[in-house]
Design goal:
The complex is a heterodimer of chains A (116) and B (111). Chain A is mostly beta strands and 116 residues long. Chain A has no helices and eleven strands. Chain A is globular and about 40 Å long. The mean pLDDT of chain A is 90. With 111 residues, chain B is mainly β. In chain B, a hairpin with a 2-residue loop joins β6 (56-59) and β7 (62-67). The model of chain B has no long low-confidence stretch (mean pLDDT 93). Classes of the chains: A mainly beta (116), B mainly beta (111).
Amino acid sequence: GAVVSQHPSWVICKSGTSVKIECRSLDFQATTMFWYRQFPKQSLMLMATSNEGSKATYEQGVEKDKFLINHASLTLSTLTVTSAHPEDSSFYICSARSGGQQETQYFGPGTRLLVL
Amino acid sequence: QQQVKQSPQSLIVQKGGISIINCAYENTAFDYFPWYQQFPGKGPALLIAIRPDVSEKKEGRFTISFNKSAKQFSLHIMDSQPGDSATYFCAALKNFNKFYFGSGTKLNVKP
């Protein structure tokens, strides 16, 4: 199946710093990428949807100025958590969808963020 | 409002037994229903999926049963193995738009 990678797999940072997470589709072109947040023992919460070359669409309640999403190419999307705070600590997962298989999302392995 | 409701929250099954996880939805516009398997510290992986024009789909030990009139669908894992121990999420999709995930079921298969 299609492969989606995330980098880094985990990150620890100090409160107030910014953290960038990369999501790459390794063997297909992802016209759409999704960013999710998952708290322990809970389901995935969609944060935003990004289409290559256009602005991301954020879900209600997600601060677009805090969670900056860039989808500059068909294989790369980045999520930047700006001025991170301890409450931003979570598991962030991206997924990618190719234009040819609209219903299939391939998930990355996730990035665990811990803000001290 | 949760679009997809999943139960049970956790499930313990003996090796060789059948694991059954249920999901229910409200929106009749949903047209694609996948199940994902997630191991700790990993992203979800697509397990099996079904469309509403089919009542059942089987892939190996995994079967989806779909009841359109009741707006319910379930995952059956036959001959459950300890390696199946993971968290399972059902999801629903409409018009190739965003996914709506269930709350997840943590399955523990005892050896």
